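wait is this the right file?? whatever heres the structure
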């Protein structure tokens, strides 16, 4: 739809909402460091503010990593056949 030029505001907003929902669901799956962060918070007697800070940092670094991987894949697609 995007390539066909059908870029309407409701379409883009709907797509962003869908991706955000999928991303939120994705974070609930195993292997996202939740166990390590929880163990750290318990061991260090972490406060709710510390938990919020760690959650934001994990979210930020994970998101930046996904964007970096996407940029590498986009760059590589110019030179390597999928």
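ok assuming it is, sequence goes like this
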């Amino acid at each position: 739809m995007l390539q066909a030029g059908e870029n309407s505001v409701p379409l883009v907003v709907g797509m962003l909402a869908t991706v955000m929902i999928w991303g939120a669901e994705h974070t609930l799956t195993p292997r996202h460091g939740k166990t390590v962060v929880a163990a750290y918070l318990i061991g260090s007697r972490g406060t709710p503010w510390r938990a919020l800070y760690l959650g934001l940092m994990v979210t930020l670094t994970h998101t930046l990593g996904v964007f970096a991987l996407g940029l590498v894949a986009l760059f590589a697609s110019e030179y390597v056949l999928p």
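The mean pLDDT is 82. so i think its the right one actually
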